[in-house]
Amino acid sequence: MSAAAERTAEPATSPVNIPDIPADLPADLPADTPERTTMYEISGLTKTYTQGKRVVHALAGVDLHIDAGELVSIQGPTGGGKSTLLQMLGGLDRPSSGTIALDGKDLAAMSDRELTGVRASTIGFVFQGFNLIPTLTAQENVETALVPEGVSASVRAERAAAALASVGLGDRGAHLPVELSGGQQQRVAIARALVKDPTVLLADEPTGNLDEQTRDEIVELLEGLWKEQGLTVIMVTHDSTVARRTQRRLRIAGGKLTEIGV
User: Fold this and answer.
1) DSSP per-residue letters across 142-166
2) DSSP 177
């Protein structure tokens, strides 16, 4: 049989079945992107306390889902429940009712010892007032976050130096807080939060004490760390300029949480 006849006799190739791509898949999301995992799942969260003869409903039935790797801001009026919610997310306070699951584990049901372990290993905190120990150097302030983990002195020093370098302060480790600018002190506080290799970073008004230029530098730093390290970052802020740079914007007022978009 001739070569031409052999080619003619070859069976036809079966068509390839290509699965449909869901219509609701975001245009910028690759079709093979794995499904996101849940970091926080909050249901019916309430917090009530008394202030003199007045009953305060700081949280009034909050429901919230946050995926791992999200960058979220929470805004709202003073006394609206922002800081209370952040304290719940960080295991610093307990709800009056409801559940708050972090990576599938209900913080509200944990013992004090278990919560301490979660805070030490999983959650990094950044505060408006920096909260640095004035008599310790930047290096030593960062190292303090590793003391509860029982890390050796040499490993603490190595990890703290790396954390300071990651926030642009590799040459400032020997400086006391008073020898640093406000922006540099906040960078030290961020390094202290990151040195534990947390999966969650909670920031309470991290730019509240800074001028606009320094504010923008700190926000850019947090954005860069979020992208590079895949952190779940949740920020409480009064500053709409800061909030608009996050993936999700939430608002809490009167203890009730709503989503306000980006």
Assistant:
1) HHGGGGGGT--HHHHHHHHHHHHHH
2) G
Name the one residue in this structure whose structure tokens are 């409903």.
57
Tens of each residue's pLDDT in the chain, 262 residues? 444 444 444 444 444 443 443 444 343 443 443 467 999 999 999 999 888 888 888 999 999 999 999 999 999 988 889 999 999 999 999 999 999 999 999 999 999 999 999 998 899 999 988 999 999 999 999 999 998 888 899 999 999 999 999 999 999 999 999 999 999 999 999 999 999 999 999 999 999 889 999 999 999 999 998 998 899 999 999 999 999 999 999 999 999 999 986 4
| Contact (CB, 8 A) for 37 and 232 | no
Whose structure tokens read 């992107």?
33
Which ranges in the chain belong to alpha helices (H)? 3-9, 82-89, 112-121, 138-143, 153-166, 182-194, 212-229, 240-243
d(CA 223, CA 176): 26
Amino acid code (one letter) for 115 = L
Ramachandran angles phi, psi of 6, nearest 5°: -60, -40
Strands 97-102 and 105-106: antiparallel
Torsion of CA 221, 222, 224, 230, to 10 degrees: 160
| DSSP H/E element including 219 | helix 212-229
- Paired strand residues for 250: 74, 259
Q: Tell me, what DSSP letter sits at residue 71?
A: E
